[in-house]
Amino acid sequence: MRTSVTFLFAALFIFAGCKRAEKPAVPTPPAEAKKMEAVQKIPMDQLPKWPADYPVTGDSVAVISVSIDGRPIGDMAAEFYPDKAPNHVRNFKWIAEHGAYDGVKIHRIIKGFMIQGGDPRGDGSGGPNWTVNAEFNDIPHTRGVLSMARTNDPNSAGSQFFVVDGAPAHLNGKYTVFGKVFKGLDVLDQIVNVPVGTSRMNENSVPQETVVMTSVKIVPRSAVMN
């Protein structure tokens, strides 16, 4: 699935790949803590789809560690909205807890709009062996929001997601918001200032430095509140 957004026509689609042809604080429940310990690292292309009862409750957060050209620049901590988009939260946690986001590039950067990653191929054409149906909701796309990329099919989300840099209101109600960065926005600032080049879609969004999510971990909120 070729992921492609034309920024000049921002009211169109943020795509996330399937096939290339388509272009707030409570303790972590014991069950979830046990689940975190039990998972094993599995590559994206070998990872089965999450079970429907995979737990999303509790106050766990994502810690996204990022490097630029091999230099660690810090972490972004993001909370989840399971009451708004339970399957998208389940999907993200499942992938992260199996280590399938570790080492994956942030392959598209448009300052003032968003950064996008989560494609194991690193070029916007990849994803897992499943899709997630839309869970559009009333949370607006504001700076730091995590939202899911997709093709022009609303029910085509996979592993690719974006972090908003700006307030693109035209995305509201059209892409599924499932979380928001609440700590580490300085890391987002560093990422959006990476030089970019022109893509094959004639979009100035291709990082000219290698931006990588070195790890994406699911941890209790208390672990990052210091």
What does this protein look like?
By secondary structure, this protein is an alpha+beta fold. The protein contains three helices and ten strands. It has helices at residues 30-38, 86-97, 185-192; strands at residues 60-68, 71-80, 104-110, 114-117, 145-148, 161-164, 177-183, 196-198, 204-207, 211-220. A hairpin with a 2-residue loop joins strand 1 (60-68) and strand 2 (71-80). The longest helix has 12 residues, at 86-97. The termini are far apart.
Determine the strand fraction and express it as a percent band.
Answer: 25-35%
Mean pLDDT: 87
- CATH topological fold name: Cyclophilin
- Please tell me the CATH architecture by its name: Beta Barrel
Low-confidence stretches: 1-13, 17-37
The DSSP helix count reads 3
Backbone CA Rg: 16 Å
Q: Strand order, main sheet: write it out.
A: 1-2-7-5-6-4-3-10
Give the distance, in angstroms, between the N- and C-terminal Cα atoms: 40 Å
Tally of discrete structural domains: 1
Which sheet architecture does the biggest sheet show?
8 strands, antiparallel, barrel
Number of strands: 10
The general outline is: globular
Protein traits:
two-stranded antiparallel ribbon; Cyclophilin; globular; 226 residues; 3 helices; single chain; alpha+beta; eight-stranded antiparallel beta barrel; disordered N terminus
Q: What's the short version?
A:
This protein has 226 residues and is of the alpha+beta class. It has one domain (7-39, 60-223): Beta Barrel (Cyclophilin).
